[in-house]
């Protein structure tokens, strides 16, 4: 009973904020991680910042930085680098397993097999995630994506820290290792997640999926 009440309270808070659980996790985590990395890389800067601001103002600044970092990561780095690379890895894994056409376990490849043009497949995936599933299933998927963003964000910020230290001629190897480990973990987790989502989509039936894709303008 307590778990149900807590879940309802969490849903109410997220709803009032106007963000998804996936976004909320990304905003908060990216800001906290950035602050932690700066404390390790440039501790004097963090100390000076804390000494010249209040705890509340510092928290607000960290949250604002987190929102900015997450949006840049999600809309730029993710859309143009991470997600295309992940889809390529997934295609390669499917090919090794002999999965083709409607047997694909990658959502975007499956949509391609249904006739969705290349330029609309990412949009089709986002539409499916936002509108196709029930509220409970959608929320669970968003939370799972939020967990994956934790891995990706740690990798991206770890690589950024390594690059910063490298160009300053300082030891950067530990952050390079952190970035690499979390990036590999993110790829593996993302691969499994998309396999699960593709299975869930196929379970609805091909005709229902195609009807939805036609309704949102991804199929003619």
Provide a descriptive summary of the structure in words.
The chain is mainly α. The chain has one domain (2-215). 82% of the residues lie in helices and 0% in strands. It has nine helices and no strands. It has helices spanning 2-17, 21-41, 43-51, 55-96, 107-113, 121-132, 135-167, 173-203, 206-215. Helix 2 (21-41) packs across helix 3 (43-51), helix 2 (21-41) packs across helix 4 (55-96) and helix 7 packs antiparallel against helix 8 (173-203). The longest helix is centred in the middle third of the chain and has 42 residues, at 55-96. Residues 1-10 have low confidence and may be disordered.
Topology:
Layout lengths: L1 H16 L3 H21 L1 H9 L3 H42 L10 H7 L7 H12 L2 H33 L5 H31 L2 H10 L5
Largest sheet: none
Helix residue percentage: over 70%
Query: What's the total number of strands?
Result: 0
Please report the number of helical segments: 9
Structural class: mainly alpha
Which stretches are poorly predicted, pLDDT < 50 over at least 5 residues? 1-10
Q: In percent terms, what proportion of residues is strand?
A: under 5%
Run of helices and strands: HHHHHHHHH
Number of structurally distinct domains: 1
The radius of gyration is 20 Å
User: Gap between N and C termini, in Å?
Assistant: 47 Å
List keywords for this structure.
single chain, 220 residues, mainly alpha, 9 helices, elongated
